[in-house]
Give the backbone structure.
Amino acid sequence: MNKGALLVCLFGLLQGCSHGVKQTYQSDNFDSRVRFLVIHYTTGNWNDSLEALTKGQVSAHYLIPEKHDSSFVEGDLAVYRLVEEQQRAWHAGVSHWQGRENINDQSIGIELVNRARCVYEPLNWEEQALSASQLDAQSFCLYPSFDQQQISLLIELATDILTRYPNIEPTAIVGHSDIQLGNKQDPGPNFPWYTLYQHGIGAWYDDDTVFKFWQQFKDEGLPDYQVVQCALQRYGYGVEVTGEFDQQTFNTVKAFQLHFLPWQVTGEVNPKTLAVLWALMDKYREGVIDRHCMSVAQ
């Protein structure tokens, strides 16, 4: 390659073009790969979390420490970027939300340092219809409170992300437990979803609508399980419509309660849980529950 051609090539690389490709026109037909924002907790201190997310087999785009962590010696709390947003971080695993798989490919993941811990002891009963309380007995989790300064940093970060990715809808801001049913509990019942909602981040329900549906279910009784499963599916969860209260339904209801009824995480289908689900559907799905899910039971 002669000197003149080399200079042309170098100039083209600096302009983001090479091999004679010219970006002369800009199409209006594109959007961002980022559709979801997923929030996690790490289950370890700063050192363990940073090691796992940078040297292990998982990663996230951002990591936010907490106060009173002796392993954090960086100074004031701050947001730490571990993976560029344009790149794919490995934080979601085998996941599903709103009809989409492989949420890693379509999301930004944020990890909060928090030393929550769960112990699992699966029941050995096979092919038996278990109650919600029996299923709930399979695990015992401890959930430390989140640091308020940590949450303030998260709100600032999430607000900035939503400014840059306006196609992330309120219902597309989820926890790890929402997208990986049964395997994950994070960010847990102590995570302040309602506080985030008050700052314009994520979905929440309107109280009056909840009370309306709660009274309706008290007066008329609960719908069939297949209608409940359909409603959960239409909202975003990866649950199959089987018409039975099975392990996957328990996992889905529990994940829903972790997010929207953290004071009542039982996995049980009851009037309060369904009132919240119906209120969310009414607010964010324009009543599609009437047009789609009710027909499932017929």
